[in-house]
Design a protein that fits this description.
It comes from Planifilum fulgidum. By secondary structure, this protein is an alpha/beta fold. It contains 29 helices and 28 strands. Strands 9-10-8-11-12-7-13 form a 7-stranded parallel β-sheet, sandwiched between helices.
Amino acid sequence: MTYPIGSRVKIRGEEWLVQDVRPTETGHYAVRVVGLSEVVRDHQATFLTSIDPIDPIRPEDVEFVPDDSPGYRRTKLFLNALMMRTPILGSEVTVRGQAAMDDSDYQYVPTQMALERLRPRILIADGVGLGKTIEAGVMLAELIRRGRGRRVLVVAPRSMLEQLQKEMWTRFSIPLMRLDSVGIARIRREIPQNKNPFHYYDKVIISIDTLKNDDRYRLFLENCTWDVVWIDEAHNVANQHTDRNRLATLLANRCHSLILTSATPHNGKPESFAALLRMLDPTSVADPEKIAKEEIRHLVVRRFKNDVLPQTPGFKDVHDAAVFCPATPEEDELLIRLGETLVHAIRSGKPKRDALFSVTLLKAFLSSPTALIKTLDQRIRRLGRKLAEDPEAERYLKDLRDLKLLRQMAEAIPMERSSKYRELKKLLREWNWDGSPQSPRVILFSERIDTLIALRERLIRDYGVNEDVVALFTARMSDTEQMEVVRSFNEGTSPIRLLLASDVASEGVNLHHRCHHLVHFDIPWSFIRLQQRNGRIDRFGQLNTPEIRYLILKSDSEAAGAETRVVEKLVEKAQRIQHNLGDPGSILKLFDPDEEEQYVQERIAEGDPLDDIFGDDDDWDLDFDFVPRTTTHVSIREKEVPRMYRDWLELMEDLQAELERDRKNFERIHGFRDPNRQGEKIRIDRERRRVTISVTPDLKSRLRSLPPEARKGEEIHLTTDASRVMRSIRMATIDGAWPRDHLLWDIHPVADWVADRALGLFPSRTAPTLTLPFLEEGIYYYLIQAQALTESGHPALAEWLVVERADDGFRARPFEGRRDPLMRGAWVNSSKENDVTGPDMDIRRVVACAREYVNKRLKERQRELAERIREEKERLKKWYWESIKPLRHQQGTLLDDPLRAARLRRLEAERHKIEFTYESTVNELESMLKIKGDPVLRVCARLMRG
């Protein structure tokens, strides 16, 4: 026996509404319900069918009751609520044009591709600035609307938790409980210490490091399943045999749908990319060394700015330029000295020159003299310890003298006398920046925190501004401090006018809302990191031309200039990527910023020419990456879901009137006001397309995942105008508040509250009967909801149909929503008295006709699904033999060799793992095909001419 979502059941003598059904490991079901009868009204509970008998209300038990509300609004509300709770099948997109976002085709491609799979699982690997957050939000919204996203877990870097939480709520109405340090403290106050917070909150956002470092949360996770898991910046979990990778793999195995997002989906090693692919589908890759692009194309979306420009006006042309900073005589002298200084490696054994450290010194100086001093101090301390162990080590004495001389020279170049600082001030003057509130906001990046600290002290002194005008953003700050800086920088009233950031701010953080000026005070020796930095302001939604400048120390001296040419070359190539290539990994083919930096430093240390290091432009191989590019057009197929109302305003007007009528009837019958409805008020402003609802205890509990600042006041302000919400989002950044206006649409928690209220408008085991003047004489129309679940707990069928009873018999057809003949005229109350109420003598034959139609549709659906599963099994079988073949080959050569028993055991373990994956995947596929019980029907309304 199954219990369709939206159906009524009787449990422990009370009536409940089924909200969700999940299979248990014992073969029974966990049924989540909300109370409808007076004693349990609005109370949420979960019952196990193995413990409590659950009495479903059979379709034949229906009793028809009249609807005397104006325009049959009770019936319309009731039917619309049932339609909202009906799962959506098919691969068409249903949420397009409804969220608060600038709409472009390319944003729906990941969702379209994922919906075409048996399990929606995708890696969104679009380049920096394309809006992977929005793309992931679209997919989350689609899955929630389909009834496949009740439980959602989002895992993200700690600096991005609040940003993602706010984006998901303000643009998509998805409430996520934020478990940062403040959120965890809040949980400890609200729920018992031994209670699993992931059971208490259905939708959660948390950082990967919190999960990795807190054993308690790891244990909680192991006892949870999710409808959807989204891992942002997924490259951080790609390296195998790390805690992050093991945790991500655990999450991937405990969810139905999986979203991975990363602009750098691997580090150049196929093993790391294969690790992500195997999270999406354990059977996607047999051999990581032989990743076939065509075989994984359905799992990955990979595009760059130039790929999507024809589809969207959402990007601005970038104005970037190199700013050459003529070296002072002191800087020239220091550069020459750096080129001549070559110290010894600090380690035992034969003396060896440490060319790599010499490059490190150069790189530090190209950041700032202050950074060079810090690097020298660290080496000088190490040399001091080494000499204390071996005072006779002559080579170390010379190194110490040379490094102290370099330090003395660097000390003679304070920040205010350095050429880059001088050019920075000229640039700020060119941009009309003086630290006043009228100054444009500027982001300045540097690799070295010491450089940033020195810059901040000097700028505050030179411009005579308060300390809060020039802010720092570094990895030394806590998660809440980082989020506070981002929030403040994006506020209109924030005093911050210059944000000095290390590269911890180069990934994921949105800084483009009120800023379009960016300075690279030093140049990272990585094209990927350069593009990541630029992506903070050069991204979808930027309203102004991004102004990007690269500060390059330039020497006219041939001896000194040789030391700075690497930076010129880096910037030259980075600009080519910015304007033509799009993919920063295509130059060095390393695909990891740290590895790019290390590679460049090592090649320079070896004395290799720069053209050999970076290659010739004509030799760049744009197809080298083993991540498939999504360059072909993916057409977005859309579907309108059945509904009774043109818009939510019309629906809310009807609900407001019905709830007011119910309150008055209760008071007239009982002599006092309904205590469960005290304070429940709805106000509608049609001109402004706004709905204001009082925050009742019921609504408050539905919004408990949101932070207090998003739940201020005793009212919720909603609008059906997405553009108004987007304006509200922009206005809210003036003072850092959360937007006042929420977007009212199908997945907002208020929509769920509305559905619960509407479904309670008709008593148990009843359905409305009504007469409409435009219907054909002599025919009765029965509107029926049909659902069938598979053994996997997912819907195999979810349809609305109409059974027509005429003199010549019964016939069934699909209900076509607002285009259906039942909807072709206005629903107005008939003057004709409708006395055909109570039991219907023909209801059994109506239900039998509906069941015959549904069974036929279910067989068609099963045939379609069986073909897809057959193809998937064929692919799965191929994967199995490709994976097992090397192990079978090895087994025969190892059996007779006892010295290699350990390796044999490892191979056997790998074999068992492959066999387990194969068998469990086959079982999962077969469970998607098997129907659990009979299809469940619900007679929802009867219509006739009148």
